[in-house]
Amino acid sequence: MTKVGLRVPGAVSFEDWERAGVGLARMADSSAWCLGDWVLFGRNRFPDRYRRAMEAAGLDYQTIRNYVWVARRFEPPRRREGLSFGHHAEVAALPDYEQDLWMALAEYHQWSRNRLRSEIKGGRRAVPEPRETASLPRMVVDRDRLGQWQRAAERSQVTLGEWVARQLDSAAAELLGRTDAGADGPPGPS
């Protein structure tokens, strides 16, 4: 490997060639995260000198600016290893709750970055604006169960998050003997 390319020996097996490609793709993807984190650290730790380091590294300002923006929008615990940096960049401008929703869908359906972009364009109007919110604990469910919920949500023409919220509202209303919660959402203030 050099700065301007990769030389592959002619006697390489398919498996080795494939493994190298997977490794290179991972390196390229992780380098965007690493560079974004590197600049963020430098701006905080060396505010008067970080730009000099960026210039010495020969980094394009706009490219690194994009890396920093995405890295800032996604603290490491929120980054999904099953999705590329590009997937994260596609949702970075959205509110956190929408980022989480779209990334969960992209991960489950194994959407490409372009497919995610297309789905967001088509489904953005279906994501409701939250009221004062709280986070639910992260649930781990098997793929079949999640797939069934997703199909039900699609058939109801709502997002998975909205479908789950409606089901929980309905179950809570039934259990608590209330009739004012249900398919139209949670009750208003009393």
Percent of residues in helices: 55-70%
Q: Strand share of the residues?
A: under 5%
| Gross geometry | extended
Mean pLDDT: 82
Number of helices: 8
Distance between the termini: 67 Å
The radius of gyration over CA amounts to 22 Å
Structural class: mainly alpha
Low-confidence stretches: 181-190
Number of strands: 0
Task: Please trace the helix and strand order, writing H or E for each element.
Answer: HHHHHHHH
Largest sheet: none
Short summary of the structure?
With 190 residues, this protein is an all-alpha fold. Helices cover 61% and strands 0% of the residues.
Descriptive terms for the model:
190 residues, mainly alpha, disordered C terminus
Question: How would you characterize the overall build of this protein?
Answer:
- The chain has 190 residues and is an all-alpha fold.
- Helices cover 61% and strands 0% of the residues.
- The protein has helices spanning 14-45, 50-57, 61-73, 85-91, 96-109, 113-123, 143-155, 160-176.
- Helix 1 (14-45) crosses helix 3 and helix 4 (85-91) packs parallel to helix 6.
- It is extended, with a radius of gyration of 22 Å.
- The relative contact order is 0.06.
Could you outline the blueprint of secondary structure elements for this entry?
Blueprint: H1 14-45, H2 50-57, H3 61-73, H4 85-91, H5 96-109, H6 113-123, H7 143-155, H8 160-176
Helix pairs in contact: 1-3, 4-6, 7-8
